[in-house]
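Q: I'm writing up a methods section and want to include an example of the input and output format. Could you take the sequence below and give the corresponding predicted structure tokens, formatted cleanly so I can copy it straight into the document?
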Amino acid sequence: MRAIIPVAGFGTRLRPHTYSIPKVLLNVAGKPIIGHILDKIIEDGFDEATIIVGQMGEKIRDYVQSNYKIKFDFVEQSEPKGLAHAISLAKKSFTNEPILIILGDTIFDVNLKPLLKESFTSLGVKEVDDPRRFGVVVLKDGFVRQLIEKPENPTSNLALVGLYWIRNPKLLEQCIDELFQKDKKTKGEFQLTDALQSMVEKGEKVKTFDVVGWYDCGKPETLLATNRHLLGKSPNHLKPDGVVINPPVFIAETARISRSVIGPHATIADGAVVEDCVIRNSIVSNDAQVYRALLEDSLIGNNAVIEGSFKRINIGDSSEIEFQ
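A: Here is the clean output for your methods example:
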């Protein structure tokens, strides 16, 4: 079975981290985002994947090929023309067999095995408070009646979460081609939502399935929230000598930590050095160095260096002091 994984986005909301590394290679709970995605689909039986890359795609290719043994194809999306355009670049791998499209900037906690037995095209959905930020699904009698990309006045709060089980890839290819022929864009891009709507209009029966575990990695605060969730499920209790651990945490075997308090909800990645620190609800990425610092709600990039300082204070009653 084949999965299509588009990962060509720029990750602008995670800058400055994504100036030098693709978003899907950011570390969350001990491994890159794309590592969590690949582990999940391989566990559920997928043995082929087409990965659609953009800038710095060679870094994604190197990571994937160094760590996974399934069959991969890599396709480059050189211009950001939308998700439908990205998927069209993988059409050489389309056959009459179903495919799974899974967006590469979100981590899912869902059992895909029942989905693979589904006889209809099925879209992952979740109820959200503000559907205007998403593709929205309107149902009738258990099947999709309408799909709308980022509606101004939504008539449903069922949002598409980025999981698409496509039973008829050739029809999807045809519908995407028609978007190009008509130059039909929404919000300035060729949208997969519009192509799926065209499939519905051509008679494709489309259902939905609920995705409770849907964890966004698009912004610093949501990346840290996802890190907290994943650590809570499978914490790593490695405890270096002289270090206080407040679980859940992840500490890589190659990290070097001394005279510090780590956690809760802290990830210390491969090659990181931490000395004389208190770190909680933060991610310290590969080969970063942190000395004499108290970090909370922080993202520390690969190879970054932080050197703090401790202060001595003698302060009287009813006083107030603030360090900037």
